[in-house]
Amino acid sequence: MSTILIVEDESVLRKALRMKLEGSKYSVLEARDGVEALEVLSRETPDVILLDVVMPRMDGITFLRQWRTQQNEKQNIPIIILSNLADGEKVKNCIENGVYDYLIKSDWSLEDVLEKVESKLKK
Predict the structure, then answer these.
(1) Which H helix or E strand runs over 101?
(2) Per-residue pLDDT of the chain (123 residues; tens, 9 = 90+)
(3) Residue 31 — left, alpha, or beta (φ > 0 → left; ψ -120 to 50 → alpha)?
């Protein structure tokens, strides 16, 4: 069973994503911000990370920078950004930090996220 880490500060969205993924037979880990995500990643190895950009304590860009500076076997975990930001500079920054895909929250459904996760796991 593949494991997905959801890094999202909005509890309603985090719960909806968890329910969708668990309903599709995935194991789900959760973090409310980048700090919690780094803690989870210190002990778990998910197959895909769903990452929000705007979060308290540590945002997604800062998380990506810190995560990518750590030299370990988990560096190749695919990351899919889920954000309200359509800022071209933020998108560019995410891509430079190894993000697999970038979805604008207002433009996707839970089914779209599931399809992205599944397409990445098949590679």
Answers:
(1) strand 101-104
(2) 899 999 999 999 999 999 999 999 999 999 999 999 999 999 999 999 999 888 889 988 888 888 877 766 677 788 888 877 655 565 556 556 555 566 666 667 788 888 888 888 875
(3) beta
Instruction: Give the angle 54-51-20 at the CA atoms, nearest 5°.
Output: 120
**Secondary structure (DSSP) of the chain:** --EEEEE-S-HHHHHHHHHHHHHTT-EEEEESSHHHHHHHHTT---SEEEE-SS-SSS-HHHHHHHHHHS-SGGGG--EEEEES---HHHHHHHHHTT-SEEEEGGG--HHHHHHHHHHHHT-
First-to-last C-alpha distance (Å) of the chain: 16
Distance, CA of 27 to CA of 8 (rounded, Å): 16
**Hey, is 70 helix, strand or coil?**
coil
Q: How many CA atoms lie within 13 A of 22 on its CB side?
A: 10
Tell me which amino acid residue 48 is: V
